[in-house]
Design a protein that fits this description.
globular, mainly beta, Small CPxCG-related zinc finger protein, binds zinc ion
Length: 62
């Protein structure tokens, strides 16, 4: 089967300023953030973040 258009929903961190955005990762490896063309800082380069650890939903205990 060559039908492989699984698009994953991921988090992407700007390589310039570390801002994190919701993004989609395409089967060819391209990552695009959702809702805008690039980061507010002007960068369009992002690293996919492993969403196993989301700092915003994991406040420090105590
Ligand atoms: Zn940025």
């Amino acid at each position: 089967m060559a039908h492989n258009d699984d698009v994953r929903r991921v988090l992407a961190a700007c390589t310039a300023c570390d801002s994190v955005y919701a993004a989609r990762q395409w089967p060819d490896g391209e990552t695009r953030i959702i809702g805008q063309d690039g980061c507010s800082c002007g960068s369009t380069e992002f690293d996919v973040v492993d969403d196993a650890g989301d700092p915003e939903s994991d406040p420090p205990a105590g």
